[in-house]
Amino acid sequence: MTTFAPDSIALNRKLPLWYQVSQSLRASILGRAPDAPLRLPTEDALAAHYGVSVLTMRQALKELEEEGLISRHRRRGTFIEPHARRGAPVRLLGSVDAIVAQQSGMRTALLEHGPVPVPADLSGYFPDLPEVAGFRRLRSDEATGEPTNHARNYVRPDAAARIDPADLERWPMTKVLRDAVGVRIGRITDTVEARLADPETARLLRVPLLSPILHYTGVTYDADGQVLDVALIHYRGDRFSFTVTLDAH
């Protein structure tokens, strides 16, 4: 069977190799011709193509699989999903410290916390758990007291058991998990999309019903690739924008 031929890239040793490979392969998949084969080469062939280890290649493929661009079948191989066309979310590389900085600098009220059933739409992140620890917070502008965002976090119980709730009124969840709990964070995947405010969000953020808001989903993985925390945050659309700066050098 003919296999898909991805583009080649020159890798930058200052950035994670799996990330560069996943983004290159992602671009090849989304920009493929309509009649291009759907079957990908083997892991060994792809690793040789990009000049990386098989372990690095597996991590890159796992990223694309989680994004829904490919599916992997034991003994059959790896295939591009037929519907995988342009419109999939763009993923950008940053640091944990950058995310912590973006989440800091606001007054935070912890509204509630305790065990909750895993939400149906998040079950794929916690396939081995019937319930997780839920935390709900409201952040406000330090100067004006005006609400700016409403956050829900769903955290693995073993990590949540070591969280001091008072810390969540001082620090972002990412910082609490890393610095207070002592978890080794491997990566964080962020997705930002536009939505309309539902009744609860409108009330908490003091905006009209169906006002535009920014909906952020942040999935935090530990060093072993296990999901630690899923954050769902609603930002006021009139207070936040999404800016990306790319260094061309």
Overview of the molecule:
The chain is of the alpha+beta class and 249 residues long. It contains 7 helices and 8 strands. It has helices at residues 17-30, 43-50, 54-66, 96-103, 157-160, 173-181, 199-205, and strands at 70-73, 77-80, 107-117, 131-140, 147-155, 185-196, 212-222, 227-236. Residues 86-90 have low confidence and may be disordered.
Question: Secondary-structure blueprint of this entry?
Answer:
Layout: H1 17-30, H2 43-50, H3 54-66, E1 70-73, E2 77-80, H4 96-103, E3 107-117, E4 131-140, E5 147-155, H5 157-160, H6 173-181, E6 185-196, H7 199-205, E7 212-222, E8 227-236
Antiparallel strand pairs: 1-2, 3-4, 4-5, 5-8, 6-7, 7-8
Helix pairs in contact: 1-3, 2-3
The SSE order reads HHHEEHEEEHHEHEE
Low-confidence stretches: 86-90
Sheet with most strands: strand arrangement: 3-4-5-8-7-6
> Pairing-aware structural class of the strands and helices?
alpha+beta
How many E-type strands?
Answer: 8
Question: Proportion of β residues?
Answer: 25-35%
Cα gyration radius (Å):
20 Å
Keywords:
single chain, about 250 residues, alpha+beta, 6-stranded antiparallel beta sheet, 7 helices, 8 strands
What is shown here, in short?
It is built from 7 helices and 8 strands; from the N terminus they run αααββαβββααβαββ.
